[in-house]
Structure formats: C-alpha cells, structure tokens
Amino acid sequence: WRRVSPSTRFEEWLSASKDKSEGSPKKLEGAAPAPTPSTAVVRKGIASETPGGWGRRADGRLGCEHYVRGCSLVVECCGKDGAEVVCKRCHDDNISRPCFPSKMEAIAVRKMVCLTCGERQPVAQNCQSCHTQMASYYCSICKVFDDDASPAAGSAAWDPTAPNEKSEHIYHCPYCNICRRGKGLGIDYWHCMRCNACFHMSLRETHKCQVQNTLDSACPICQDNLFESTESVVPLECGHALHSRCMTKLARQASGDIKCPVCRFIVLEQAREA
Length: 274
Fold this sequence. Notes:
This protein has 274 residues and is mainly beta.
C-alpha cells in the first residue's frame, strides 16, 4: 500500500491498492464465502430452500411443523403492516411476539402470502398470481390449510370427483366452529351439545358429560388447550379429560393403577393376582 495524497482520485487509489502480481484485490484469510442461493437469507414471503428454514418443513415440503401448506398468514396483531406466520399454532407458541399472551383470531385474518412467489393477497385456496394450490384442505372460516388431509365427505370443500389419496381427513364442526381431524360428524365423530365438544363415535354409548368448562381448559399432561386441539380427547369417568396420546403416555408410565392427573380418581385398575 502506498501513501495517497488528498488530491488523488478514488479510482487511482483503488488501482494502487490492488495486488500487482494477480491484478485483483487481495482476499482476507478466513473471510466468509459469498452466500449462495441455498444459504442466502430469504425474505419472509418466499420459502427458504433449506429444510427447516422459513416456510420449509424438515422433510423439504412447504409449511411448518404443524401443517403442510403453501402459504403464510398475515396477522395484524403483531405489527402495523402485519407479521407473517405459517399457522395459528406457530403464532400462539411464540412467546417473544409483540402481542403475547393474546392468541391469534383466525376469523380476523384477511391476507396471506404465497410461499412460492411471495405475493401478498386475500386468503384463498389458490394463489392469484402463480395459481399454485395452497393445500388440498382449506377452511375459509378457520383459515386452516393442510395438504396432508382431505376434506370430509359432504363438507363444503369436498369434491366427490377428486381423487382421494390422503390418509388424514379434516372437517369443520359448525357447533364448535372449529376444524377438527376426522371424516365428519355422523361418520367417525359426533357432537355433544351439553359438553360443546366432538367425541369419537366409539364413546357415544358410554359418554358421560364432563365437568363444566373442563374441555375449555388445558390438558393436565401437555397443557395444550383441549377445545382448540386437533388431537382426539378422552373423557374420564371422574369428569375430567385429556388427549388420547397423553392418556397412552400416562398408561405406559404408570407402575400401578392409572389415576386422573387432576383428582387422582382411579380410571383403570391394575390387574391383581388372586
């Protein structure tokens, strides 16, 4: 490097600072390489190309850990211009959001962003710009998109002529006013008007209505809200309830009688030798 006088033009200084032997600027050792398209920061709106990145599941498909979908939702509660979240659960589980601890009101969501082209637009099943379908299942009320599920038979979103290769089904219960996993009311689930909840058809003959507001509370095992959960719920004889997967976990860990985690009522006695 040579001393440059104030009158020297910038172009002369740049030329003088180049390596004479190679004719190009010297590279600093240990400098980070220029970002490639796969590692570059991707703005929200277009899904990352890296599995597990923004809008991209670990298996490489578009969506989040909760749903397979081709769009994100714009929620106005987290910013003046609206923040992007892939789903309601992603929003509610994020304790660092500006609106914490309030939950996302799905009915208030009006805009979505296509993860393929980045176009912000009104919520719909297909992108108005690139015409990509966001998911095979779409509920305009709950703003639920899921490409791993098919609409329940007879529902507004059901198309009897479309091929059905999905193993999961989702239906919208008009009484709960929420989307639930299943083939539909009267098929594999039924709605108890007193409990204001949906239960599997196998429990209809032995069902006992729950303690008031039990289903509008958190599961005593995982603390997820029972009413809003997509998981099936198991009512106990004592009047309390928990998720079926939590009940299975509780049964596996029990060394003796299986008791309700709330009131300690014995819901299943261990077989004892005579």
